[in-house]
Amino acid sequence: MATWAKEKLPRENGELVDMQVPVLVSASRSTDIPAFYADWFFYRLDKAGYSAWTNPFNGVKSYVSYKDTRFIVFWSKNPRPLLQYLPILEKRDIKCYIQYSLNDYEAEGLEKNVPSLSQRIETFKQLVDKLGKGHVIWRFDPLVLTDRISIDTLLAKVENIGDQLLGYTEKMVFSFADILSYRKVQANLQKAQVNYIDWTEAQMREFAQRLSAFNHKWGYELATCGEKIDLTEYGVQKNHCVDDNLIIRLAYDDKILMDYLKVKQHPMPQVGLFGDAEPLPQDAIVLPNGMYATHGDNRDKGQREFCGCIKSKDIGEYNTCVHGCEYCYANASKERAIANMRSHRENPFAETITGR
């Protein structure tokens, strides 16, 4: 888990406490902040300047200051509430992109409290219109197999969404539901009487091969999240969800952020008389300013073995998302998440998401 330098800073009550001061914020792998806690988050960011976070493993509260924050990665299944708050990010010169989990389990009822698919696709397009292409990343995550959902079913759903997003996204990220590794997910699915099927390697390869055929018409970058299996033969890369390459592309003119990411910018090689030029380094990122960038190793070694994310501070808390997804790994139970939401509503701008 990423840790950051700490400074003694004041809470709202005047008490000086140690606060982590992250440059990159993740909001959040643990819950859907844009959908349910956007009011809270932007108050804490813009008015209070900090928030508190409770460690899920030991219950210890820690504090996070936003005074040096330069970039935020949002994760959401319904980021529509962000639209009204984008001016705050612009005012504070904080850039962002959105990992948007845009799935289609409407017929099967696996995501009970998300808006309709058509509404979510419209939100995707509105966010791209506001932020620009590349700032909103489509995720079909996770891919769930059940006695009612086959590979054919999933591919039809993916193709339908992919066709509608053409021109609005550059990328599709997916993962295969790993139900056997999460006991609470198994319990939640069994309680909901969902007859899940765990993916085999052969099924994963079949899905990737058939998905790559759709991609001939899309031209999306295809990538898996946190998967061990190598699918590069089908044109599928391993994703970096908190991605320094993308952050550099979107914020190359932010010197503080670039220094943090150990970025060096270089002039593009000159083209010779015969139209030839020195090849770029393999890890070069071509920038729109006539330069290319290279960077150091920023990977967060505290994440899962096959996670490619770089270091960021996640400010969400488990057991607080009320989308009601049957396969959810972030909630011990729906009841606990609903109870925490009630607590939040009683104290909606408190230091913590739960209001406690």
Describe this structure in words.
The protein has 356 residues and is of the alpha/beta class. The protein has one domain (6-242, 312-346). The chain has ten helices and 17 strands. Helix 5 packs parallel to helix 7. The radius of gyration is 21 Å and the shape is globular. The model has no long low-confidence stretch (mean pLDDT 93).
Identify the notable features of this structure and list them briefly:
single chain, 356 residues, 8-stranded parallel beta sheet, 4-stranded mixed beta sheet, 21% strand
Query: Strands across the major sheet, in which order?
Result: 13-12-10-8-7-6-3-17
Backbone CA Rg: 21 Å
Q: Tell me the number of helical segments per DSSP (H or I, 4 or more residues long).
A: 10
Report the average pLDDT across residues: 93
Structural class of the secondary structure composition? Answer: alpha/beta
Q: What fraction, in percent, of the residue positions are helical?
A: 25-40%
Assess the beta-strand content as a share of residues.
15-25%
Largest sheet: 8 strands, parallel
Note the run of SSEs as H and E.
EEEHHEEEHEHEEHEHEHEEHHEEEEH
Inertia-based shape: globular
Q: Termini separation (Å)?
A: 23 Å
